[in-house]
Write a structure and sequence with these properties.
- The structure holds two protein chains of two kinds.
- By secondary structure, chain A is mainly alpha-helical.
- Chain A contains five helices and no strands.
- The longest helix of chain A is centred in the middle third of the chain and has 32 residues.
- Chain B has a two-stranded antiparallel sheet with strand order 1-2.
- Chain B starts with a strand and ends with a strand.
- Chain B has five helices and two strands, in the order βαααααβ.
- Classes of the chains: A mainly alpha, B mainly alpha.
- Chains A and B meet through α4 of A and α3 of B.
């Protein structure tokens, strides 16, 4: 996503994403172990279930911070277009799949896949967007 | 939008990377502006004009 000659904003963005990814893995393991061993109850159930999602929300906020910090307007423009492409694609896929589930008995797609699929679409979108500027 | 960036840059023997460094943007940004595929914001256009010691009107033309 980020070009090889990265600036300070891009380097900070990459660090934030690695931290978020590491925390997501750690919190997922903690939550899985907690539900396997401890069977949390009450409010703790909700808190533990939400825990792995917090770094993901953090990664989205981190992306927003990058857009604020990035001084190179062209690079900012590339990412904004890619994010819009990714959002459009994932919303389209989710809507189409929802209708297929409702009316055509398609297998249920767990909502947890929406986030990774969003970034796959952002990546594809980035490839298409950058083609325009070659 | 058409522009004279390539000519002005060549007159100074600057590469796209040199210009990018002076503008504090990526080389891809300079290439996109130079080829007319990306129109810079007004602040960046002013920065370019100052760098080449010219006016924005002399640097950019709105002819398609």
């Amino acid at each position: 996503m980020i070009c090889s000659t990265s600036n300070l904003a891009q380097r900070r963005y990459v660090v934030r994403m690695w931290v978020a990814a590491a925390l997501c893995i750690l919190f997922s393991v903690v939550t899985a172990l907690e539900f396997k061993r401890g069977h949390p109850t009450g409010v703790l159930t909700y808190l533990m279930a939400i825990l792995p999602a917090l770094p993901i929300i953090g990664a989205l906020v981190g992306t927003g911070i990058y857009l604020l910090e990035e001084a190179d307007e062209f690079q900012r423009n590339l990412l904004i277009q890619s994010l819009l492409g990714g959002m459009g694609a994932i919303l389209s896929v989710a809507t189409v799949w929802g209708n297929l589930e409702d009316f055509a008995h398609a297998p249920h797609l767990d909502l947890i896949w929406v986030y990774p699929m969003f970034w796959v679409f952002v990546g594809l979108s980035y490839g298409v967007v950058t083609l325009r500027y070659r | 939008m058409k522009n004279r960036l390539r000519v002005l840059r060549a007159e100074r023997n600057w590469s796209q990377a040199d210009l990018a460094q002076r503008l504090e943007v990526s080389r891809q940004s300079v290439n996109a502006i130079e080829t007319g595929k990306f129109d810079p914001s007004l602040p960046l256009a002013f920065k370019l004009a100052r760098l080449f010691e010219t006016n924005i009107e002399d640097l950019f033309s709105d002819e398609s």
